[in-house]
Amino acid sequence: MEQPVILIDGHCYLCQDIVRYLVKRDSRARFRFAALQSPAGRSILKAMNDGGDTDDFDSFILAVNGRYYNRSGAALRVWKGLGGWRSLAYALIVIPAPIRDAVYRFIARNRYRWFGKSEQCLLPTKEVRERFLPEGY
In angstroms, rounded to a whole number, what is the distance separating the alpha carbons of residues 9 and 37? Predict the structure, then answer.
């Protein structure tokens, strides 16, 4: 089984905070990361989009064994993967995806305004950098 990869917006401060949060709590180092804008991220997006355009993606994406999840579905599967009490969040999967994703899109649309935006991609610490794919930031 290949290691799950989480693609994030490397310019988004909220997304960067989420990566730091996950690295601290993913004690089994189950998840790897890549910025959507990075060469590694674009390669995964290209595979996900059957070789098509990679510029229209701004979603949180989870890639696992050739399957791709985005928006709320990706977030809930990541919570489940952390194990422990956090995996209880996966129970929200029973809410229809259009409703979950509407909440996700509302937060995504406002994330730069609420949390800020960096002009350069994530500059990770050594601990975080070790969890990124090569050419992932």
Answer: 7
